[in-house]
Amino acid sequence: MPELAVIIPAYNSSKTISAILARLAAVSAALPETAVLLVDDGSSDGVGAAALSAAEKLGLCLEVLSHEKNRGYGAAQKTGFTRALKLGCRAAVLLHSDGQYAPEELPSMIKPLLDGTADVCAGSRLLSGRARAEGMPLARYLANRWITALENAAFGLDFAEYHSGYMAYSSSALRAIKFDTLTDKFHFDGEMLLCAGKLRLRVAQRPVAAHYGPESSSLAPVPYLAEIAGVLLRYLRRGYFFQR
To answer: Are residues 5 and 114 in contact, defined by beta-carbon separation less than 8 angstroms?
Structure first.
């Protein structure tokens, strides 16, 4: 039975997936028994087949979970988490398929979960103070700082950021958070962190680097900001029960 699930949401990322899996395989000796769950979110470029081929060569245990049509970043995570719980994994960690977050940081991301000192580990690009030097665009950096301050004030929490995609959860945290009721879109990570905070789960925060290459996913700012505004309004109206 695998102890850890590495969940990789993938949408038309066949150009980058082999390199990501190779980097994951290189650190696999520092990880417990691991199931790699690639969630193909309605891709049209054969990313699932590319991942299976690469995993076989690398000796990785990889399963492809497929959506017939594109359902969204949050929906892909829900599929992965549901499968991880069914497999009996103690922890699940998210890894992006575009190379924005480093597989080499997986051991430090899961350590507080496996040693029992945290229920959730949130990787933050802002904690190190090197976000700009590592290539985060100025507009994204300023927006992240401002929106995070607004969210902390509204939610009564104190997190370094709500907009990182490098997140890890214990199985008990996944069972406590009603993740299937959260958004299917890009602010899923922020909603998960909000729920963890309001449930008073133990949240560890770790500085992580991010790479912004040509294949890195980008968000349309207006829809993303509208989604965040919707979360804020629902929470202010209904408290933690905004998710029901």
So the answer is: no
